[in-house]
Design goal:
With about 375 residues, the chain is an alpha/beta fold. It has 2 domains: about 190 residues, Response regulator (Rossmann fold); about 130 residues, 3-Layer(aba) Sandwich (Rossmann fold), CATH 3.40.50. Helix content is about 35%, strand content about 20%. It has a 7-stranded mixed sheet, with helices on both faces. Strands 9-8-10-11-12-15 form a 6-stranded mixed sheet, with helices on both faces. The chain has a two-stranded antiparallel ribbon with strand order 2-13. The longest helix has 16 residues. The radius of gyration is 21 Å and the shape is elongated. The protein starts with a helix and ends with a helix.
Length: about 375
């Protein structure tokens, strides 16, 4: 898959290893279960151990949606845990916006301040490589997550967007019997995430000649997705299933407003989407990029700073829920806004958070 080849090119290969006795990780996170290599050939890295506590900085680009806000809040909540706090001398989180030059300036300030590690959600996969190389020359560790970078001087932590798109498509095929009209609600045109998820869906749907797809762009936004879905429904086409990258609450509401039965929908993990699935009981598969990737990235950084052998590219699990597995207060939250992003925990790593713990953090 291109996605896996891309990450291998970024960070080499990797082999599973055991981790035990680390401060900052609960004992019940068993060896090999949490920090998982991206692929069987991803290389391992090991640095000379440094003495803590450590100065950690989170360099974020865009901050204008719920996911990014929760991501920063979770990072702060993690650094305040009793088992992590002794390792943290200082933690700072700043957001630069989507201008590469602004994030470069932000990271230069972090380098000058002498931090031990920078946790990075990048504005560009390539535009920050030079400043990351400067950080490496200064002995500063960079762990890149979510929107990852392409220099070998960064460790990467991410979830597999191709696999996410594939699982959505497999669900739709299963629920429709491999035939009928499928509405594909894409994300932001031209982005890597949209392209990888869509490539996976087309690989699956292409094996079923009785499936016909209609593609629209919802921009991962409820309002936009509701509008374009309503337009598609107004054409008179009966859709037997929906494959949606985001804005899923809006997709469901468009079917409701049209007075139509809601078909099986595979989509992201917005709270509103899961609340509606719980209420209306339509077949649903919800998989989302976890904002807890920030906490996992800090965990990885602390391992490396303590001299532990670690994969250079880490694969995080995909948090999944179906209509049958929805649990109020655990994987959806009736009292919270529709925009709240629900996969706030990575249980296999002991990264369990409550909505209350997250929302009390100031950004």
């Amino acid at each position: 898959m291109q996605r896996r080849q891309f990450i291998r090119g970024v960070a080499g290969g990797i082999a599973a290893t055991a981790f035990s006795g680390l401060i900052g990780r609960p004992a019940f996170a068993a060896a090999g279960e949490c920090i998982v290599p991206w692929a069987s050939d991803t290389k391992m890295i090991k640095r000379e151990a440094k003495s803590g506590p450590f100065n950690i900085a989170l360099s974020n680009s865009y901050i204008g949606n719920t996911w990014r806000t929760e991501m920063v809040q979770i990072a702060k909540a993690y650094t305040e845990r009793d088992e992590v706090k002794p390792l943290i001398k200082s933690f700072q989180a700043t957001s630069s916006g989507n201008e590469v030059s602004a994030q470069i300036a932000q990271m230069n300030q972090m380098i000058l301040s002498g931090v031990d590690a920078i946790i990075l959600n990048a504005a560009s996969p390539t535009g920050l490589n030079s400043v990351i190389d400067q950080a490496a020359d200064a002995g500063i560790l960079v762990v890149s997550f979510d929107n990852v970078v392409t220099t070998d001087n960064a460790v990467t932590v991410n979830q597999d967007q191709y696999e996410m798109g594939k699982q959505w498509a497999d669900f739709v095929v299963d629920k429709t019997g491999g035939n009928g009209n499928i509405l594909m609600v894409r994300g932001v045109a031209g982005t890597f995430v949209d392209q990888e998820r869509t490539r996976a869906a087309n690989d699956v749907f292409g094996k079923h000649p009785d499936i016909k797809t209609t593609e629209i762009y919802g921009n991962w936004d409820d309002g936009t997705a509701q509008k374009v879905t309503a337009n598609a429904l107004a054409s008179g086409t009966k859709f037997d299933g929906v494959w949606s990258q985001g804005g899923d609450t809006g997709v469901v509401r468009a079917f409701q407003q049209a007075g139509l039965d809601i078909p099986p929908i595979a989509g992201e993990a917005e709270n509103g989407f899961r609340k509606l699935a719980s209420e209306l009981k339509f077949p649903m598969l919800s998989i989302g990029q976890s904002p807890a990737l920030s906490a996992l990235s800090i965990m990885v950084a602390l391992d490396i700073l303590q001299g532990k052998e670690t994969p250079q590219s880490v694969s995080a699990p995909l948090p999944t829920a179906t209509t049958d597995t929805l649990k109020s207060g655990e994987n959806f939250f009736p009292e919270l806004p529709d925009s709240f992003f629900t996969p706030i925990s990575i249980p296999v790593c002991g990264l369990d958070f409550t909505a209350e713990q997250i929302l009390k953090q100031k950004v």
